[in-house]
Amino acid sequence: MGKLLKKVALMCVLALIFSLVAACEPVSVNDEKTVTVTVVAGEFEQSFEAKGEIAVVVDALDILNEKDDGFNYTYEATQYGRMIKSICGYAEDAANWKYWMVYTDDMRVIDTLLGEDVYNVYFNEETGEPYSYVYNGKTYYSTGLGVDGQTVIDGENFLFVLG
Questions:
Q1: Residue 12 is assigned to a structural domain of this protein
Q2: Beta bridge partners of 38
């Protein structure tokens, strides 16, 4: 009788373990996202869609750079991360103070305070308002972490403006 009880107990434990494992949600091992990158340089305006394992903005840029659909970018590695030098053949113009600015439509930039968590919002010192850019009737907000540190969410839209 003792052996039978042990077998039943073992079967019950195995059934319990199996039911617990079966009830667990599968954990995704990748970070598949879709991100839209819109480039605005004077009269040039074009949007590109990046799909893949995207954790930060530069991941989306690298994915787009690898595709042969008209998107390309160059950068300079600095102590603060990558500084965008050109996108789609449009280069910064330091002599005229024209650099690439990065904006997002994700409201996390407004919901977090300066210096906290994921975003570092640039504020206009005169008005106290965050720097923003209106494109096609939609407001995008400037962030300060750059393309190497700026995390993304699925479906987020980034606006790169040369100005």
A1: no
A2: 47, 159
pLDDT digits (tens, 9 = 90+) for 113-154: 444 444 455 667 788 777 889 999 998 988 767 898 888 889
Give how many domains the chain has, as a whole number: 1
Q: Is residue 7 part of a domain?
A: no
pLDDT, tens only, 33-76: 999 999 999 999 999 999 999 999 999 999 999 987 899 999 99
Whole domain around residue 111: which residue ranges?
Answer: 32-162
Cite the beta strand spans of the chain per DSSP E.
32-41, 44-53, 73-78, 81-87, 90-91, 100-104, 132-135, 138-142, 157-162
pTM: 0.74
Tokens for 112, please give them: 């977090």
**Helix, strand, coil fractions of the chain, as percent rounded to 5:** 25, 40, 35
Measured CA to CA, the distance from residue 13 to residue 2 in angstroms comes to 16
